[in-house]
Amino acid sequence: MKNNKLKNTGVERVDWITVIVYLFFVVFGWMNIYSAAYDHAHPNIFDFSQEYGKQFIWIIVSFLIAILTLYVEGDFFNKFSIYIYGFFTLLLVLVLIVGKEVNGAKAWFGVGDFGIQPSEFSKIGVGLLLAKYIASSGAKFKTWKTRLVAAAIIGFPAGLILLQPDVGSVLTFVAFILVMYREGLSGNVLILGLGAIVFGVLSIVSGAGSINFPFVGEQSGVWLLILIVLLLGIIWWLYVRNFIVPRNRKPLYWIIATFVLASSLFSFSVSYIVDNVLEQHHKERIYVMLSLPVEREGADYNSEMAKITVGSGGFLGRGYLEGPMTQNNYVPEQWTDFIFSAVAEEWGFWGGTLIIGLFVFLIIRLINMAERQRSQFSRVYGYCVACIFFMHLLINVGMVIGLAPIIGIPLPFFSYGGSSLMGFTLLLFIMLRLDAERLSIFR
Amino acid sequence: MNNEKDIANKAYMVFAGIIVISMAIIVRVFLLQAIPSQKANELAQNFTYKINDIYPTRGQIISSDGSLLATSVPEYEIRWDSQAAFNKALFNSKVDSLSLCFSRLTGDRTATEYKALIRGAIKEKDRYKKIIDHIDYNQLQQIKSFPFVRLGKSKSGFIFIEKNRRTKPFGSLAARTVGLEREENKVGLELAYNDLLSGKKGEQLQKKIAGGIWAPMSDEFIVEPEAGCDIVATIDVHLQDVAHAALERQLIQHNAAWGCAILMEVETGYVRAIANLGQNPETGGYEERLNYAISQSVEPGSTMKLASLMACLDEGMISLEDTVNTGNGIVYFYGKPMKDSNWDKGGHGILTAEQVFEVSSNIGTAKFVKKCFEKKPQQFLDKLHSFGIGDRLQINLAGEPNPLLYSKTTDKGWSGLSLTQLAIGYETQYTPLQTLCLYNAIANDGKYVQPQFVQEIKKNGKVIEKTDPVILHKNICKKETISQCKKMMEGVMEKGGTADYVFKSSPYKVAGKTGTAWINESGSYQLNRYRASFVGYFPAENPRYSCIVVVHDPRSGVYYGSTVAAPVFKELADKIYSTQIEFHAPEPNVDSVAIAQKKILVSKSGSSKDLLTVFRGLNIPVEEENKSEWINTASNIGSVKTTPRTISKNLVPNVIGMGLQDAIYLLENQGMNVHATGVGTVKRQSVQPGTQVKSNPNILIELS
Fold first, then answer.
1. Residue B41 has pLDDT above 70, yes or no
2. What CATH number is attached to the domain comprising B693?
3. What residues of B are in contact with residue A332 (Cβ under 8 Å)?
4. B43 lies in some domain
5. Do the Cβ atoms of A49 and A43 come closer than 8 Å?
6. Helix (H, G, I), strand (E, B) or coil at B283
């Protein structure tokens, strides 16, 4: 009898392995925040005036959130997903009005010393609502209508975040496209997206230089790229004209024309946006990532420092609290978005690999978890959680090691910050709750 | 169905994508951290910021008496950034006078040449042109005041680079032992203590500035460099100087190929002097070329006879009084002749064992060894090994070879002839230092100590490590054997011994052994080419120092150890005897006695009137023995005993133990000019007490 209530709630079926990984991340992350933010005047890890002391409060709050979440009926998240989505989206609107500006972005609600960043929570709302929509409509994204609805669900909060502006957080919303792919969205969209990225990079790289053309003199390098596209178009056209049966030629001519025109327009607009629309520091960050020369001295400081710090760790690491780059604060605000550099310096390649490996383990476990769900809602939500973690891991670690531009997004559970820790905790534990009661759900 | 499969495939695609991308991240981390590839290094070249290694100043090597043997001194290099933003018109107006200044300072280039050099840098667009190298601090200060340069780095483009240069203030003194500090093939102490001397390199974040120079971003270090430790060598500069000079004189006089001299403290194994001189084939002069003393294995010849007779004595097979017939100076072993040095004068006839050693009879030694060990040669080898002479000394300087000594009679090369050859120091090889250690062990009553070259390691002026004597063998033979050996070695200096005339007039007693060995070159013994050696210790009654001198291939016609090598020993012993207070007991040095006995009181010697007033004032009971104007004082527990000190007219008084006031009073009263150093009581006086004042009116007294 005593256990009956628990049995009904399903808490005893919680996936404890995931919980253990979560606890490890939180505690190990806290240790590394302590190391990265260490201040000789405040050696106590519970000193609430310091980042590590504050993080301790966030950890306690997050644990409470986690426990509470486990005791909420899974059906609640399904039924109330639209309200949860609405609530977090409202916060995004409010933050634009009453938020406090930090580093040029209106992304925070300031409460005394503490701040709340609603964008860290809005992903939960998007994940839940997207799951609900797909589950209830059986959408396979074959029709434009379903695609548009999904795009609206994702795009509305993303647009609000872009207004803050916080490009980094918006980028993580790409995670939902992966989810839609799993649920039926054509792979061509992904390929098209990937192609756009490659072509975009090519445009930026070629646009950064200039080339001396015959007759017209010095022109932007983008012209060379367009010339190559044109050449490819002509070769393709010649091929079609000579080797394809006449009745099939016409649609192919249209495709060729579209390809050449769209590519040219795309590379022009990319290089125009980079040169004229993006702010100077964004442009610099992209240039730094692509190893292009940057005019302003020190623009590559963060990136170089982070790479030097990772390199300083070597194979075995410098030892906890002994990383020279970490202890001497060469990486600005290392305890937030650059926390992985502290891990890599003090714990070395093995420590860094362990963390990445555990993240991959967590993500794959989440995907497995998603695949074993009877309810489509739970499955889609599971994919959302896994893909969000993946995007964060990819962009954050990629940024530290110079694979991605410097975009301020946190490493889940590791980076200092209450909003992100609480947000990720909620995100994860909703899934754990859904998973725990999966057997009591009938299709 | 198809749709289901499609969905499942998509799930796998997502899986695969995640795995592949994660692997890519890990690979990138690996490339950043684990593989410092060529490409990464090239990339690092272009980094604007980099962690650079900062090397601390290398520690010094100091002699035991506090002189610098090796130190790093700063020197500077002047470079010029020809593309710096300087005033072109001003530059053109000053370049002539600047070139002239450079030329006057260095003298290695004319003003025109300097001008061409500077102008050339502009043409080459060189941003880091070396103008002058190896200048010292004073010269640097002068250059900083030169026209144009004085505008400063940013307005002139002149850059001063500080470097360190290793120098030996005492030049070639013990140069091979102090060692060479260079990138490769370091030698001596510089090599042995390289890690300690170099300290720990630090790390600093640096920024690349114009001209490819790395400049610190701030004064802070990521890892603070740790200065190298100072090494206090056991070498005493004064003794080293004597050893070097005396050895050089002998080598020149006898036109020898090389020679070495080692002076070692008996009890501790501290090497106080080690001179290695080899003839430069081009100039004919002598310089520290190789560390013969520790690295040159040679056949010891007669000096080995000590070990041979020791073996016989220690096994109780012979006594010093046992006799042997050495005949007419020639004896045949297995058909090969063995001669004594006076074979042409008819030989020594019948000798006791002691006499055999004293006259260094080959035949006598060989016959004793043969008599004792002919049946069991292995026992002889075992005995020799038990003395420790078959093993390396494991000194911390590199280059010590293994001694060559048969360990089994089945070893390659052993023949019927080997026993008698070995007995007189052939078919076996040792370095001079290894030979010395055996004699040192006798002097040290059987304790076989390891030679030490470093006595202390200091860090920031504080001693962090002291070298304790290392005892390799506690007791190499019976006590009785040791006193027998000592007796034989003392006999060498007495009438009839091979070195009886060398120390005849010396006030101290020496024990030792001469050696004159044939030189074996490319497998055969060379006619009339010898290696002379002398090894021993002194004072014989209470040995404090042991010493070996080896002179290789003297070509002056004189080649006996007593004539060629022993004089170097004598000069060293004379120097020690004359400068070290412990050897003098004309009037007991009561202060040192008191200190040695750890009495609570220390008192000066000097004017009795003054001292007695002080003692009375302090209520210290005084036992006076024979009142006198000048007294020595000896402190006992709670009381002081005085003894008179005699001061004679026109003779230099003994002022040791006195305060400065009394010492100056006494010495100037005798008409001497006094120079004093230090504070406390007089520890040393440069003119010995009792000498005529007239002969040397200048005196230096050291107080401590």
1. no
2. 3.30.10.20
3. none
4. no
5. no
6. coil
Report CB contact under 8 Å: B223, A330.
no
Residue A190 near residue A181, CB atoms below 8 Å? yes
Mean predicted lDDT score pLDDT of chain B: 84
Same domain for B197 and B271, yes or no, is: no
**Contact: A367, B11; criterion CB under 8 Å:** yes
Q: Is there a single domain that holds both residue B137 and residue B191? A: yes
Domain shared by B205 and B282, yes or no: no
Q: Say what the ipTM of the complex is.
A: 0.75
pLDDT in tens, B54-66: 888 888 898 988 8
Q: At what angle do helices B237-254 and B566-579 cross, to 10 degrees?
A: 150
**B557 within some domain:** yes
Question: Nearest residue on chain B to A184, judged by CA atoms?
Answer: B7
B203, B163: one domain:
yes
DSSP 3-state assignment of B518?
strand
Q: Nearest Cβ partner of B29 from A183, A310, A330?
A: A310
Nearest chain B residue to A343 by CA distance is B29
Identify the domain boundary among B204, B233, B262. B233
**pLDDT per residue as tens digits for the range B131-148:** 888 888 888 888 988 888
User: Considering the entire predicted model, what is its pTM?
Assistant: 0.55
Quick check: B217 contacting A, CB < 8 Å?
no
Q: Are residues B425 and B483 in the same domain?
A: yes
CB contacts < 8 A, A to B, total 101
Residue from B513, B530, B510, B534 nearest B521 by CA: B530
Q: Do B48 and A304 touch (CB under 8 A)?
A: yes
* B188 and B321 fall within a common domain: no
- Min Cα distance A316 → chain B (Å) is 9
Counting Cα atoms < 13 Å in the Cβ hemisphere of A330 gives 32
The nearest CA of chain B is from the CA of A353 a distance in Å of 6
B276 and B221 co-located in one domain = no
Report DSSP letters for B521-582, one per residue: ETTEEEEEEEEEEEEEEESSSS--EEEEEEEE---SS---HHHHTHHHHHHHHHHHHHH-GG
Asked if the Cβ–Cβ distance from A367 to B34 is below 8 Å, we say no
- Asked if B236 and B69 touch (Cβ cutoff 8 Å), the reply is no
Q: Per-residue pLDDT averaged across B87-109, rounded?
A: 88
> Does B18 sit within 8 Å of A363, measured CB to CB?
yes
Weakest mean pLDDT among A234-238, B42-46, B400-404, B556-560: B42-46
* Residue B184 at interface with chain A, using a CB cutoff of 8 Å: no
Q: Any CB–CB contact under 8 A between B14 and chain A?
A: yes
Half-sphere exposure of B318 (CA within 13 A, CB side): 26
Q: B604 lies in which domain range? A: 600-646
Q: Residue B577: which pLDDT band, with cuts at 50, 70 and 90?
A: confident
Total number of domains constituting chain B: 4
Name the residue in chain B with its Cα closest to that of A328.
Answer: B222
CB B447 within 8 A of CB B397: no
Residues A225/A202, Cβ–Cβ less than 8 Å: yes
With respect to residue B31, please indicate whether it lies within any of the assigned structural domains: no
Do A311 and B47 meet the contact criterion of CB atoms below 8 Å apart? no
Q: Which residues of B fall within a CB distance of 8 Å from A360?
A: 18-19, 22
Q: How does DSSP classify residue B418? A: H
Phi, psi of B532 (to 5 degrees): -95, 140
Identify whether residues B338 and B201 lie together within a single domain. Answer: no
Q: Helices (H), strands (E): how many in chain A?
A: 18, 5
Q: What pLDDT digit, counting tens, does each position of A203-230 carry?
A: 887 777 777 777 777 777 788 888 888 8
Q: Name every chain A residue with its beta carbon within 8 A of the beta carbon of B22.
A: 356, 359-360, 393
Q: Which two tokens stand for residue B320?
A: 């010093």
Give per-residue burial for B94-110: e unless 16+ CB within 10 Å, then b: bbeebbbbbbeebeebe
Residue B449 domain flag: yes
